[in-house]
Amino acid sequence: MGKPTVTPDAWAHLAAATPARIALGRAGDSLPTAEVLRFALAHARARDAVHTPFDATGLVEQLTVLDLAPVAVHSAAPDRATYLNRPDLGRLLDPAGRQALTALPTTRPDLAIVIADGLSATAVHRQALPLLAAFLPWVRREGWRLAPVVVASQARVALGDAVGQALGAHAVAVLIGERPGLSAPDSLGVYLTLNPAPGRLDAERNCLSNIRDGGLSHDLAAFKLAWLLREARRRQVTGVALKDESDRLLADGRAPMLLAD
Amino acid sequence: MIGPAMMPVRGDVGLVGRAPYRIALGARTWTFADLKDLMAKATPPRSGDRLAGIAAQSAEENVAAKMCLADLPLKTFLTEALVPYEQDEVTRLILDRHDAAAFAPVSHLTVGGFRDYLLSDQATTDALAALAPGLTPEMAAAVSKIMRNQDLILAARKCRVVTRFRNTIGLPGTLAVRLQPNHPADDPAGVAASILDGLLYGCGDAVIGLNPVSDSLSTLADLARLIDGVIQRFAIPTQACILTHVTTSIELMSRGVPLDLVFQSVAGTQAANQGFGVNLALLREGMEAAQALKRGTVGDNVLYFETGQGSALSAGAHHGVDQQTLEARAYAVAREFRPLLVNTVVGFIGPEYLYDGKQIIRAGLEDHFCGKLLGLPLGCDVCYTNHAEADQDDMDTLLTLLATAGVSYVMGVPGADDIMLNYQSTSFHDALYVRRLLGLKRAPEFEAWLTAMGITGADGRPLPQPPSQPLLRGWR
Q: Where does this protein hold adenosylcob(III)alamin (chain B) (predicted)?
């Protein structure tokens, strides 16, 4: 038996406090073999998540059951390879999608919801419906009028601007798969933009990110989205001018039943 | 061999930005519509310039543009603005702040002659420091386009930029590390655990800098107090930063929240900065608010900027200028505010701007060189995303090259996996690797603290920790 070559860290008990890769120990000053391989496996899985196909049809079926009158559209990026290299195309509707949206009756809805694959269809498959289910009660309580929910393939955040404009919506919320991380290949983001129209700047959006198990919960994300939408409508602004102060209303870190103070 | 047939021909002198540039190579004459076209075509290949539709169409056109650019007088950049002066406050900042006296020693040179100068023994550390205010970002970008990776490394290594807040960053033979303790739910105990891990691996001298998930002022205030509490309690000679929008930092400071550094992402055009919700006046306001708190003990560099190639194109604000030149222009924005730290987040933006490991490595070396030449304390987030064609091997290569080039600081993320921002950067272990490989020390005040705490030995390497280690006892 030789001497041990890996020095363990004396604070291994703290690893339970975070999903971060802490207390890994070291071989000399370097990562131990097991950690190098564990990391390589996580990277391989994240790489694969980027290329998992989006089940737009399945999502449309489930949204139909919820009576949300879904409409499926596609961006101007025809496939994943083009999508990754041409973000400009991912922000545009393809002609069929534009036509489908403009053919809808104009009702001046308060909010359009877009469910977009983004960089992780896996995230949308896992988080979009639970988030929507948590958000719809807020919509009912506040009396907001919803546009038909749009399911968008090969889509970037700014596709919501084109969708929102085509639907004549006062605001658009884009639920989109975030770039997959090693520990979280299934994290959803939400971007809220008032008066959506192509050309809106990122600074004019409010963002909720890391919606997933172990991140921001569906209930809390739904409450925050409702709070942001209500404040956006009240102050007529989204983006850096609208700071998220919804935490003031939390009770023990949990969402309240009402938005009012 | 440069003969008369290869001399560039300037036409339409005096029409700012409109002059065509030509070079004859054998039977073929290559024409470049204007200075920004020439710069874009001379840039080593990258997906972002292709996305913008401004890249060279062939390998020969790329080299023809480099040759044409090499013969361009450096002072051309003082009279031909790539982004119109009237439309852009960054251009106005660059030209209005230009120091002609500092520029004098190289004012007679071409871009190619400037490369030779940078590699010559005339370009000493002191000479380059004196030259920095005389250089515009476009000059730095231009010369970088005709430099090979080894040139970028060697010239950057000669530059020295030292900044101070509670410690001294940028001294020769040192490398600092930002401890990046991000958590997907901003959980205080989780953030604290990552901070402890980083400190016990000898990281955190550049800054303990958290990217919060939340925009909420109360959450941000709690996180700021948490990090400040660790620094105060253990008397750590370092600084804290919450990486949130400058307006949020100003609001937090007005509420009495303890902030050391003010963070902001910046870009190289007015319109791109507008996309970030900032302008020069706002950055100045942030700087003055942080300086008024007088929280630094050895200096008053209070800003932390992040940049990255492709941000202007991403915001639809690139004016047809290539992404590397615009990145260098972001450094002109940064240097106006004497930051403690500036880093390019080189591989974060994604494959549509930097496609693979080769492009990320090249861009990291360019950004570091340009930033240092312009007088900035440039660090690098050596990183990539999971939709780029890159992996840890590429990061090992770039980290080793940048450390050799004298990079001011790199990131320290637990296990290289940022569980909040969902990308891979460099780890605490990576920092130990490169210190050991190249004999690099930490900021001296921080190094002394680590030794006094028994975290590292006299050789700077980590020691096994007993349960009596004060940091561990303090955390229980």
A: 212, 264, 314, 420
Q: Is B349 exposed, middle or buried (0-12, 13-18, 19+ CB in 10 A)?
A: buried
Predicted-assembly ipTM surpassing the 0.90 threshold: yes
Q: How is chain B split among helix, strand and coil, in percent rounded to 5?
A: 45, 15, 40
Residue A125's CB is within 10 A of a number of other CB atoms, namely 18
Q: Which residue of A has its CA nearest to B465?
A: A10
A157 has binding-site annotation: yes
Rg (CA), chain B: 22
Q: What is the DSSP string of B289-345?
A: HHHHT---SS----EEEEE-TTHHHHTT--TT--HHHHHHHHHHHHHTT--SEEEE-
Residue A208: inside a domain? yes
Minimum-distance CB partner of A21 among B352, B414, B465:
B414
Residues A70-123 have pLDDT tens digits of 999 999 999 998 999 898 999 999 999 999 999 998 889 999 999 999 999 999
Beta strands B423-424 and A171-177 are unpaired
User: How do residues A162-172 score in pLDDT, each as one tens digit?
Assistant: 999 999 999 99
Query: A187-202, pLDDT tens digit by residue?
Result: 999 999 999 999 998 8
Taking each helix axis as running N to C, give the angle between helix A95-102 and helix A159-167, from 0 to 180 degrees, rounded to the nearest 10. 30
Nearest CA to CA, how far is A105 from chain B (Å)? 32
State the CATH number of the domain containing residue A101.
3.40.50.11240
- Test B429 with A26 for CB contact under 8 angstroms: yes
| Nearest chain B residue (CA) to A46 | B386
How far is A122 from A118, CA to CA, in rounded Å?
10
- Our count of domains for chain A comes to 1
B183, B214, B248 ranked by CB distance to A20: nearest: B183
Residue to test with chain A: of B219, B266, B354, B422, most A Cβ within 10 A: B422
Instruction: Name which of B245, B314, B352 is nearest A86 (Cβ-Cβ).
Output: B352
Q: Which domain range does residue A95 map to? A: 56-249
Which residues of B carry a binding-site annotation for substrate?
178-180, 211, 306, 381
Burial class (CB in 10 A: 0-12, 13-18, 19+), A214: middle
How confident is the prediction for chain B on average, in pLDDT? 94
Residue B9 has pLDDT above 50, yes or no: no
Q: Do B91 and B78 meet the contact criterion of CB atoms below 8 Å apart? A: no
Judge whether A130 lies within some domain: yes
CA atoms within 13 A on the CB side of A147: 31
- Write down all domains in chain B, each with its CATH number in brackets: 1-72 (2.30.170.30), 163-471 (3.20.20.70)
Query: Tell me: the pLDDT tens digits for B151-199?
Result: 999 999 999 999 999 999 999 999 999 999 999 889 999 999 999 999 9
Residues B222, A193: Cα–Cα separation, whole Å: 28
**DSSP category for residue B356:** B
A76-82 contacts, C-beta under 8 A, 24 or more apart: A77/A154, A78/A154, A79/A154, A80/A50, A80/A51, A80/A154, A82/A154
Is residue A174 situated within a structural domain?
Answer: yes
Residues listed for chain A = 261
Put simply, the answer to whether B277 touches A240 (Cβ < 8 Å) is yes
Give the gap in angstroms from C-alpha B147 to the nearest C-alpha of chain A.
Answer: 27
Q: Do B414 and A206 touch (CB under 8 A)?
A: no
Confidence (pTM): 0.87
- CA distances to A251, B10, B258, B416 from A25, in Å: 39, 62, 33, 14
Residue A207 assigned to a binding site: yes
Pairing of strands A171-177, A188-194: antiparallel
d(CA B381, CA A226): 35
- Cβ contact A39–B421 (<8 Å): no
Would you call B194 and A20 a contact, using CB atoms and an 8 Å cutoff?
yes
B125 touches chain A (CB under 8 A): no
* Residue A161 contacts residue A182 (beta carbons within 8 Å): no
